[in-house]
């Protein structure tokens, strides 16, 4: 039973709730991705979808935040906290989403879905630099976290990149080839390669922004222990920033297609604003309990759920490479969780020993 404890007075029930909740959150987010793909196929503007979902989350959860977390608010709002809120909203919602859209446009959906799985590795480096994550290269648990994260990333990349090839039909292959040829003819001899490099740069930039925002959220929660309020305010600000960006880039603010009726907009509000937003709020709360690396390591689960939903709803089959990637991802996830559990338990024992020695020192002198 102690294997699931994470320290800080955490109970077994809390650990089970956090792990199960993070897994459920990734499944919900995967379902939202499938729904958004349907919206985009109907001609919806991505920035408008982001703005509507963010505004819906803020409108639904801000009253709950006031009722449940008002006593946790600081008596005085500092400028540092305001800047942190702006950076989280601007980076975590507007900039991250826009960079992802630009990256998808210039590369492929497979690469775009695989790239965010680099987040745990980047977060591990950032968190270690800011001493938010324990890092001791001589410690076997740190080494296990590094190996587990690497295995997890390799599995996620393998599942995403190897998913399309075996299941692609000859017709779909011809369409892809024709599209690639058309793109190359329009962009010139070196345009395709240039666009690919630029698109990958956008995706890497999005992952870096997301990693920084995740660490910043953990740091912000230390001085503002109200995760639901933090999410509600930053999502409201993110909705405003995204709407302003759409007006600046596209010249207007609308859904972009007459095919997006009231039922689909309601789906955005419920699935994207309430359910997905609740998942993000739960992730933010988990950040304050377990740290950024622990939360981020569940990210590949969304990739797995997306593949399963695609197979169930779209008739796509999982290749052997994809199945091997799934096994690798969950193997790496288990290794990281095992290392985190044992590392925390060891740290707790060391603290107890140090306290006992301090208390016994006057008696022994």
Average pLDDT works out at 74
Query: What's the Cα radius of gyration?
Result: 22 Å
Q: Briefly note the structural class of the backbone.
A: mainly alpha
Using the alpha-carbon principal axes, give the shape.
Answer: globular
Q: What is the chain-wise order of helices and strands?
A: HHHHHHHHHHHHHH
In whole angstroms, the N-to-C terminal distance is 39 Å
Overview of this protein structure:
41% of the residues are buried. Helix content is 81%, strand content 0%. It is built from 14 helices and no strands. It is globular and about 60 Å long. The protein has helices at residues 12-41, 46-69, 79-106, 109-114, 119-129, 140-161, 164-167, 170-187, 191-223, 227-250, 262-290, 292-296, 299-314, 320-364. It has a domain at 13-142 and 182-296. It is an all-alpha fold. Belongs to the drug/metabolite transporter (DMT) superfamily. Plant drug/metabolite exporter (P-DME) (TC 2.A.7.4) family. It comes from Paspalum notatum var. saurae. InterPro entries: EamA_dom, EmrE-like, WAT1-related. It is found in: Membrane. GO terms for molecular function: transmembrane transporter activity.
């Amino acid at each position: 039973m102690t294997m699931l404890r994470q320290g800080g007075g955490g109970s077994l029930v809390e650990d089970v709730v956090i792990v199960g909740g993070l897994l459920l959150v990734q499944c919900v987010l995967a379902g939202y991705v499938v729904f958004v793909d349907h919206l985009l196929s109907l001609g919806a503007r991505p920035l408008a979808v982001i703005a509507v979902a963010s505004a819906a989350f803020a409108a639904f959860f801000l009253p709950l935040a006031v009722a449940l977390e008002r006593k946790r608010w600081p008596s005085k709002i500092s400028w540092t906290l305001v800047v942190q809120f702006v950076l989280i909203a601007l980076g975590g919602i507007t900039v991250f989403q826009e960079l992802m859209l630009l990256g998808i446009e210039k590369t492929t959906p497979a690469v775009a879905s695989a790239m965010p799985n680099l987040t745990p590795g980047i977060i591990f480096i950032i968190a270690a630099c800011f001493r938010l994550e324990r890092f001791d290269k001589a410690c076997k648990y740190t080494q296990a976290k590094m190996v587990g994260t690497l295995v997890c990333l390799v599995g996620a990349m393998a599942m995403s990149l190897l998913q399309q090839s075996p299941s692609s039909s000859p017709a779909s292959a011809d369409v892809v080839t024709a599209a690639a040829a058309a793109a190359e003819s329009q962009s010139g001899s070196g345009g395709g390669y240039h666009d690919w490099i630029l698109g990958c740069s956008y995706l890497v930039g999005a992952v870096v922004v997301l990693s920084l925002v995740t660490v910043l959220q953990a740091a912000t929660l230390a001085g503002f222990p109200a995760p639901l309020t933090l999410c509600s305010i930053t999502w409201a600000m993110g909705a405003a920033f995204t709407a302003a960006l759409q007006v600046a880039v596209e010249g207007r603010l609308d859904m972009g297609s007459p095919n997006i009726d009231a039922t689909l907009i309601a789906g955005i509000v419920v699935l994207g604003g309430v359910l997905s937003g609740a998942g993000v709020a739960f992730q933010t709360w988990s950040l304050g309990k377990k740290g950024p690396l622990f939360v981020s390591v569940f990210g590949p689960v969304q990739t797995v759920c997306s593949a399963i939903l695609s197979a169930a709803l779209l008739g796509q089959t999982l290749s052997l490479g994809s199945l091997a990637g799934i096994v690798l991802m969950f193997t790496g996830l288990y290794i990281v969780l095992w290392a985190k559990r044992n590392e925390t338990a060891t740290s707790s024992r060391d603290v107890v020993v140090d306290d006992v020695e301090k208390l016994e020192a006057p008696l022994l002198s």
